[in-house]
Amino acid sequence: MRRIAFLQKTDKYSGAENIVITIMKLLPKEKYDCIYVSLDGGIREVVEAEGLKFYAMPNAHMKSVKAAIEHVKPDIIHATDYGMSSYAAMLHTGIPVVAHLHNNVPWLQNPLDPKNLFFALALPLISQVISVSPSIEDEFVYRNLLKNKNHVIYNVVDLERVKTLSDSSELLAERKYEIAFLGRLTLQKKPLLFCEIINKYKEINQNVTAVMIGDGELRSEVEKYIEENNLDDNITLMGFQKNPYQFLKNTKLLLMPSEYEGFGLAAVESLSLGKPVVCSGAGGLKNVVTPECGLICSDINDYIGEIQKLLTSREYYDQKSKNAKIRASQFGNMEDYIQRIIDVYDKCLD
After folding, report:
1. Strands annotated E in the chain
2. What is the DSSP string of 304-317?
3. 24-51: per-residue pLDDT in tens?
4. What is the DSSP letter of 293?
5. Number of C-alpha atoms within 13 angstroms, CB side, residue 262?
6. DSSP-based three-state secondary structure for 29
7. Which positions ≥6 away from 229 have C-beta within 8 Å?
8. How far apart are alpha carbons 127 and 150 in whole angstroms?
9. Tens of pLDDT, residues 51-95
10. What span, in angstroms and rounded, lies between the C-alpha atoms of 322 and 8?
């Protein structure tokens, strides 16, 4: 029996946390003892609701990481954050560390950024690396340090789970929307650009409806933009939702103007429900979204043009909706995904 400690920095539930929980559920229980290690908070409820073990750290400092490792005594540390991966490696515990990288953060391109330097110093002590798209290694200025240890493993989506949750009878609002935003309200996801695009499209269709699913530090700025531009009847803020898929089901398309993305999990989830994705193409999005199931946009006019086509041409929309489900199916092979994760663990212990 191998004990795996999944080391996380946040107390929130989002894309990376979703993937960790998926891995924990997929690993054979007779061979792996999995423990989710992170700050206490909303994530504990989600983890324990899945019947999984949870260990709470008081904070995300190196001392707390050390105490957690000493308590859990894992055979492998699977860290899904640049900082947590670096901390675990720098502790020199002798326990193999797998760094699971979910974002191609901008500082990867800056050789003098302190976070980049810290991660680069830790990399020789990290056993294996999993990156969710080729863009992470491509944009990493110290990519030579990843040689022979980086494995590109695209995230997997439990398509049946998404479908089941989208059909939930606990729908909080029966209202249908045309355009959705799904993600944290952070600079990375560009929620203000989303609002700007809706505001611009309102010039074409003053009755356009959009829903924003997620919360974050830019919430007040988003609310201010909506108020100042008289978008209260056009944009509905739903905040964080444990089951966002019931809202996605009631929309026509997903808009993702992200600054950067490691993989683009929300895009695959949306495609699986037959919702085309109109996006920036940042990071891993360009490996997910194709012209057949959505569009990668270079400026606001591209966004407006594609939204207009999708919302006014039934034939155009239906074809992209059909292709969306086909595209999503390519990211739903759970057995292959978990075997590739297990292969990485085997390399650590070898």
Report:
1. 2-7, 32-39, 53-57, 76-79, 97-101, 128-131, 150-152, 179-182, 210-213, 235-239, 253-256, 277-279, 294-296
2. HHHHHHHHH-HHHH
3. 999 999 999 999 999 998 899 989 999 9
4. T
5. 20
6. coil
7. 195, 199
8. 10
9. 999 999 999 999 999 999 999 999 999 998 899 999 999 999 999
10. 36
pLDDT (tens digit per residue) in 247-296: 999 999 999 999 988 888 899 999 999 999 999 999 889 989 999 999 99
Hey, is 234 helix, strand or coil? coil
Query: What DSSP letter does each residue of 80-110 carry, written as one string?
Result: -SHHHHHHHHHTT-S--EEEEE----GGGG-
DSSP conformation class of 153? -
- Tokens representing 63? 């001392």
What is d(CA 296, CA 307) in angstroms, rounded to the nearest whole number?
12
DSSP label at residue 218: T
CA distances from 275 to 170, 188, 230, 265, 272 (A): 21, 22, 27, 14, 7
- Residue 253's nearest CA partner among 318, 172, 158, 171 is 318
Task: Write the single-letter amino acid at 191.
Answer: P
Q: For residue 242, how many other CB atoms are within 10 A of its CB? A: 12
C-alpha neighbours within 13 Å on the C-beta side of residue 17: 25
Would you state the structure tokens that stand for residue 333, as one six-digit string?
């092979």
Number of Cβ within 10 Å of residue 26's Cβ equals 18
State how far the Cα of 220 lies from the Cα of 62, in Å rounded to an integer.
32
pTM score > 0.85 for this model? no
